[in-house]
Amino acid sequence: MIKGDVGDAIKALKQQEGDPLRSIGSIRLVKILAKLGLIDRLRLMVFPLILGETGKEPIYSDYPRVPLELVETRVLDSRLVLLEYRPAARAS
Fold first, then answer.
1. DSSP state of 54
2. Count of C-beta atoms within a 10 Å radius of residue 24
3. Which of 32, 59, 70, 88 has the most CB atoms within 10 Å of its CB?
4. Contact indicator for 38, 66 with CB cutoff of 8 Å
5. pTM more than 0.70
6. pLDDT in tens, 9-33
7. 42: β partners
8. Dist. CA 48–CA 55, nearest whole Å
9. What 3-state class would DSSP assign to 73?
10. What is the torsion angle, in degrees rounded to the nearest 10, for the CA atoms of residue 16, residue 86, residue 1 and residue 14?
11. How confident is the model at residue 92, as a pLDDT?
């Protein structure tokens, strides 16, 4: 559990040695990290499914605009695809 400022806590965790940090399924946390520029890579899983009436609210609707560069693709089975992105280098 993070107490205090999320940005400061994540920056401190990123300085520690060990495995990379991961967030699975926390859209709210990913939105905060994107706004703070703290995302190094973003993995999106594509699940081909037609949602019809249930899919009305896009989960990325209030994300900041972040240009992404595709760094890896992987087909996991006959219908799932993993897309891995990192924030694109911004022109100075």
1. G
2. 7
3. 32
4. no
5. no
6. 989 988 999 988 888 878 888 888 8
7. 85
8. 13
9. strand
10. 10
11. 42
